[in-house]
Amino acid sequence: MTEQQHLTHIDEKGDVRMVDVSEKDITKRVAVAEGFISMHPDTLALIVEGKAAKGDVLACARVAGVMAAKQTSTLIPMCHPLNITKAKVECEPVHAGEREDGRVGIHVTTTTGVTGKTGIEMEALTAASVACLTIYDMCKAVDRGMEIMDVRLLLKDGGKTGLWTREEQGE
Questions:
Q1: Residue 132 is labelled as binding a ligand
Q2: How does pLDDT run across 92-128, given as a tens digit for each residue?
Q3: Taking 90 as the threshold, does the pLDDT of residue 61 lie above it?
Q4: Residue 158 is part of which domain span?
Q5: With contact defined as beta carbons under 8 Å apart, do 36 and 148 qualify?
Q6: Which GO terms describe its biological process (predicted)?
Q7: Per 3-state DSSP, what percentage of the chain is helix, strand, and coil (rounded to 5)?
């Protein structure tokens, strides 16, 4: 962090606050996030084959992610309520040999958008997290050892700072 950067949700006295965005420009903003839930190969097979006891795991995870994006400001205290214009959740099975670490599971990618005065990153991250949590909930009866990992922002665009990508950061 440079000298000019600061935590925007902390005021001069060190108290948390909601950032005043009233003077910011309205711009189109988008964010993309991801998460991964690793699981036993047999659990992945149940999901892919549509044999999970609670129903269509991936459809439920997609809906839960969209719902979570829309509720982010009720979950994260200093987030502004946003009139979200886009919330997309994709869930892709990852089989043995497809990841460097050898894990199998579901890779979740979320894309959120808004035309407004503040960013949409938290909504994308919340959607990815809740989609992974939903997969866990729907499959925990057969696999309590699942792990949620790699929840992170991949891209944000719009606003004063413009485009940011994880690739540009060398990650």
A1: no
A2: 999 999 999 999 999 999 999 999 988 899 999 999 9
A3: yes
A4: 27-169
A5: yes
A6: Mo-molybdopterin cofactor biosynthetic process
A7: 30, 30, 45
pTM higher than the cut 0.85: yes
Per-residue confidence (pLDDT) for residue 3, from 0 to 100: 43
Report the share of the chain in percent with pLDDT over 90.
76
**Contact yes or no for 105/115 (Cβ under 8 A):** no
Looking at per-residue confidence, does 111 or 161 come out higher?
111
State residue 11's pLDDT score: 66
- Rounded alpha-carbon distances, angstroms, from residue 131 to 39, 126, 127: 15, 8, 6
Cα–Cα distance for residue pair 15/13, rounded to 1 Å: 6
CATH number at residue 50: 3.30.70.640
The annotation status of 80 as a binding-site residue, yes or no, is yes
Is residue 15 flagged as an active site residue? no
User: Phi/psi of residue 92, each to 5°?
Assistant: -120, 125
Q: Does any domain span residue 4?
A: no
Tell me the two tokens of residue 67.
């719902």
Q: How many domains does the chain have?
A: 1
Q: 1 a known binding residue? A: no
Q: Which of 137, 143, 150, 157 is catalytic?
A: 137
- Structural contact between residues 92 and 109, judged by C-beta atoms closer than 8 angstroms: yes
Do 106 and 89 form a contact (C-beta atoms < 8 A)? no
**pLDDT tens track for 70-84:** 999 999 988 999 999
